[in-house]
Task: structure prediction
Amino acid sequence: MICYEQASTLAQLEEILSLQQLNLPTNLTIKEKEQEGFLTVEHSLDFLKEMNDECPHIITVEYGKVVGYALCMHPKFANSIEVLKPMFYEINKVVQNNCNYMVMGQICVSKEYRGKGVFRGLYKAMKEKIPKGFDTIITEVDAKNQRSLHAHKAVGFTELKFYKADNKEWLLLNLAL
Result:
């Protein structure tokens, strides 16, 4: 049975990284990237743990195995990942002072679990488990990642801003809690 919970063990974080590796652009064909989507950021175990210690990541588990995840990235990590610095810069240009947001730092579902509601379930669990005081979830999606864009819009995300950085086009998306 599929369940949604917060990551609590080092083994779960290692399983997140294994799933992440399978979905990085360097490990996918052009056709897979177009049809299945892809991830942009590769995390280290130490940094993933540091983020998890601040706000536990949401995971989907079946038979004791992580089959999906949504990473919670507190804004205090804004300067920690080079490729994400432009995202935080753009967020800060458009959010109101009274907006307390959490960044969904990356979402991924195992291939065999796609199209079964896991993506939607991860966001539902994130909304329920996010620490008190946050009123918005913000994420960004590579404009070429159409599967991800459609999936985010299907669960209620709206476009906050389109921008260009590092020769790529990005969409900032937000979801009110």
Remarks:
- Strands lie at 3-6, 58-62, 65-73, 101-109, 136-142, 158-165, 168-176.
